[in-house]
Amino acid sequence: MGRKLNFIVLVALVLIALFCGTEYQILDAVDTIDSGDTAWMIVASALVFLMTPGLAFFYGGMVNKRNVISTMLQSFVALGVISVLWVIIGFSLAFGESIGGVIGNPMTFFCFKNVSVSPNPDFAGTIPFLLFALFQLKFAIITPALITGSFAERIRFRSYIFFMVLFSIFIYSPLAHMTWHPDGLLRNWDVLDFAGGTVVHMSAGLAALAAAIYLGKRKHAIEQPANIPFVILGTGLLWFGWFGFNSGSALGANTDAVIAFANTNIASATSMITWLFFERFYNRKMSSLGACIGAIVGLVAITPAAGFVTMGQSIFIGFIAAIVSNIAIQLNKKSKIDDTLEVFPSHGVGGIVGMILTGVLAKDVGLVYGETTTFTHHMIALVGVAVFTFFGSLVLLKIVDLVLPLRVRSDQEERGLDLSQHGENIE
Questions:
Q1: Are 172 and 140 in contact (CB under 8 A)?
Q2: Structural domain contains residue 368
Q3: Where in the sequence is the domain holding 187, given as residue range(s)?
């Protein structure tokens, strides 16, 4: 069965190559391309690309030494799987002609048909449409990779790839469409998400919670990080790449990009410092692992608000996110849910805090400015997205489990996934 499935996948890739083999089109309005915006967006896309290898180091350093390679590969393989899926159908589902404001028409940009090197004013009027599609691809790549921390050390590799494909099609693409497409349901309801608090972090966090509950606890859990320097390196790469993640979401070299850049840095810095001193307040060690998690939580929380708040407000967001996520992690440790690398308490809760505070602080339309509409819509959207993502992910996990068992055998888990899934180890 396994060999037949692999053969089918290879044949499918060859057939897809024939469909996607058309030349890049140059349509009208090429003279509207801004070279500065284009140069910045190429760099921003590369920065967001770098975040996924950074995530691999971040997660890989936190698991035990028997599962470092498998955990890193679960992030890294998304670069390949989602890139191909995005070209075939993912981009069209996310940004194709709107169907009820919920999903894009899969035929609008099927196999990147009509994705030209001319600007598309509906999405970004000063850069090639192809570049916009590639920038959005990097977001689609890292989102399922974020989920992997919740089920690290106990999932079959092929089953994970299958789940990643289904998640990208049925969870990520609809959320991206609803939030960022001009005709998207949430966008037209004035829900603000500058760079992915809902689409990326809330969806990954809620899916991670669903996966941790569905797969159950590890049978051979060893809470001994394999390589703390890997975690520090991964944090640095993520922080560096996040400037492209948030500033790039301005879709040009403009003042919004500069504001997002400044807010991204200060929120992360504030969250890291808050985390360290909050730990010491409870008489816990000021660890390097804590500093790294704190920095990431700040990056997560500022993401939806990056272009809508002041620097002082971004400091407040980083401060609140660090405290709330720290408490959530302590509660998670006392629960029966085995979220291996605490993806939900950090990314999920951080994304929720960011979305709430965006509704409170967003310039001119936030609660602090006397407006209630945006905040109310954010709260309703938050509940809707949480329900859709959590229960949708549970359904997808069940489907995958029926086709390919999700969990490795007990003996394979004990040996470690590096050897049992990949025949490799770090020793």
A1: yes
A2: yes
A3: 33-405
